Amino acid sequence: MSTRASATLSELFGVEGKAVLVTGGSRGIGRAIASGFVRAGARVYICARDLEQCQASAEELSSYGECIPVRADLGTTHGCLELARHLAERESKLHVLVNNAGSTWHEQLATYPEAQWDSVMNVNLKSPFFLTQALLPLLTAAATREDPARVINVGSIRGYLVPQRPSFAYTASKGAIHQLTRHLAAELASAGITVNVLAPGLFEKRMSQTTDTKIRTQIPLGRKAAADDLAGAAIFLASRAGSYVTGTVIPVEGGVGVVPN
To answer: Cα–Cα distance between 77 and 55 in angstroms, integer?
Structure first.
């Protein structure tokens, strides 16, 4: 029997000691994922444009482990390069990159502005590509055949389901990040780097205006996604248990995608 086949449960799902970067990690889904990694013993960097909020979140998460705040504006390629440079000054390896930072804009088709289209696309699609590119040396340094480095892109069920609200750029960017992930997975497999997508549905922090009746109607499992749902899926992909998974989209949406039309 191989040593991989005889791994203990903690070895199979452990991420202790890994260096992890979660973009947009100061709130929402990013914070939920970052919290999971911190509690699991990883050394976690979170970044956001609002340094004060980022520091406050890092201070709270540091009560469970190691969490380091970094200010970064990922709306520009320069911001991606600066974040990569900052990380390289502190780490020789990056085991896990979670591209979570996101933006959206809702407006009717007739007046949807070009500036907001570009802004959403820059954060949701352009920055994950160029940040991954800039961090390739650190990811490659962490990668081994048995334990690849991991890139986890946060997509959305709106990448494959049409929303009711007019969020055209957001929907297009999430569909694109799903396909970009597959392309990067094919490109980076030989370097020992896996690339996957987590596609969340409605998340508890974004659902204050959603009624329980609407939740039961829209979501087969009858509840909103909790922080542990997102964190658990991300830790699976980053652990030994997920080391043979690449180029896939993992829906974390309570069965919304399988509801009959």
So the answer is: 23
pTM for the predicted model, two decimal places = 0.93
Quote the tokens at residue 16.
């202790």
For the beta carbon of residue 214, count every other beta carbon within 10 angstroms.
12
**Domains of the chain and any CATH numbers:** 11-255 (3.40.50.720)
Residue of 64, 160, 170, 244 with catalytic role:
170
Cα 166 to Cα 155: distance, rounded to the nearest angstrom? 18
- CA dist 208 and 222 (Å) reads 16
Q: 222-238 pLDDT, tens per residue? A: 888 899 999 999 999 99
45 is catalytic: no
3-class SS at 91? coil
pLDDT in tens, 64-112: 999 999 999 999 999 999 999 999 999 999 999 999 999 999 999 999 9
Q: 3-state class of 163 per DSSP?
A: coil
Residues in the chain: 261
Rounded Cα gap, residues 79 and 30, in angstroms? 18
Radius of gyration of the chain, Cα coordinates, nearest whole angstrom: 18
Contact 232/32 with Cβ under 8 angstroms? no
3-state secondary structure (DSSP) of residue 146: coil
Strand 19-23 relative to strand 43-48, pairing: parallel
Distance of CA 23 to the CA centre of its chain: 8
